[in-house]
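[job 0412] stage=fold_complex status=start
inputs:
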Amino acid sequence: QKEVEQDPGPLSVPEGAIVSLNCTYSNSAFQYFMWYRQYSRKGPELLMYTYSSGNKEDGRFTAQVDKSSKYISLFIRDSQPSDSATYLCASGNNFNKFYFGSGTKLNVKP
Amino acid sequence: SAVISQKPSRDICQRGTSLTIQCQVDSQVTMMFWYRQQPGQSLTLIATANQGSEATYESGFVIDKFPISRPNLTFSTLTVSNMSPEDSSIYLCSGGPGASYGYTFGSGTRLTVV
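[job 0412] stage=fold_complex status=done
writing structure:
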């Protein structure tokens, strides 16, 4: 079993839709969670980072962690064609080693 | 968040040679990491580089093949030694002050070994 599982997609939505991206993780000791956006041929760009459970909002992006079910989510409101990219989730513990999901490819159609 | 400049952005190398990849951070960061990413795949951690100590390598990666330097809190290098076509990949560095603040990435080095 992988430490972090992520549906590879692709996920295709119309412009303006609410996008839900999800990951599950296996290690209950994980306390740190991050979401990255990666455009083709670019390095991952840090979008959100959270500690423990709860929600964190930044503009159109909301990160949510449910430690009871080991489930992490990223919501994108009012999605734009420029949001089309691969989204990577990552989880880790106090020792600063992070495990990455395989990435979900998102396509927002104009 | 820290901004990381990585170079070279790409290179084509002959088998048997070595390539050194550099990452410069615009602020002092405690943790730096080196990853490998095959096209369309997720990231595989090669090693964690801490200033003033030996790098910690993940299973499947060894210091002789991937020597790492971390001379100060803003700079690190990864060398891919005695390259073979199997080393063709994207190499990424990452760093930050700590897990509570998130880690940023360099733009990556696309390596092709011929």
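[job 0412] summary: The longest strand of chain B covers residues 43-50.
[job 0412] exit 0
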